[in-house]
């Protein structure tokens, strides 16, 4: 098995499910959003507010490109699928799995997270 890459809407459970799967498979867990925050020294919301979505997405793609670990579980940001180049990178890195959630579930999770 190569990397397992989780994609889905914000609130779909990528981080939660990713940690569970990584633990069960005894693999490292990589959260792309956390890597961006560490690299740029600010929370995601602040990065969006300061630099805008286009700049954030460029940083997101660069962090994804820097993933070299084989056999890990990756949690991506909800918008990572918007760039074609990210699909190419994810295809190279491993298997991509879409976490589908109902609109009601997403809204409940996002309201709870506020």
Structural key phrases:
Rossmann fold; globular; single chain; 56% helix; 114 residues; 5 helices; alpha/beta; 4-stranded parallel β-sheet
Your description of this structure?
The protein is α/β, with parallel strands linked by helices and 114 residues long. The chain has a single domain (3-113), classed as 3-Layer(aba) Sandwich (Rossmann fold), CATH 3.40.50. The protein is built from five helices and four strands. The protein has helices at 14-25, 32-40, 44-65, 84-93, 103-113, and strands at residues 3-7, 29-31, 73-75, 94-98. A four-stranded parallel β-sheet has the order 2-3-1-4. The longest helix is centred in the middle third of the chain and has 22 residues, at 44-65. The radius of gyration is 14 Å and the shape is globular.
Counted by DSSP, the helix tally is 5
Write the H/E string, N to C: EHEHHEHEH
Helix content: 55-70%
Structural class: alpha/beta
Per CATH, what is the topology?
Rossmann fold
Strand order of the largest sheet: 2-3-1-4
Radius of gyration: 14 Å
**At CATH's second level, what is the architecture?**
3-Layer(aba) Sandwich
What is the beta-strand fraction? Answer: 5-15%
Shape designation:
globular
> Describe the biggest sheet?
4 strands, parallel
Mean pLDDT: 91
Q: By CATH's scheme, which homologous superfamily applies?
A: P-loop containing nucleotide triphosphate hydrolases
State the separation between the terminal residues, measured CA to CA: 36 Å
Question: Can you tell me the CATH class?
Answer: Alpha Beta
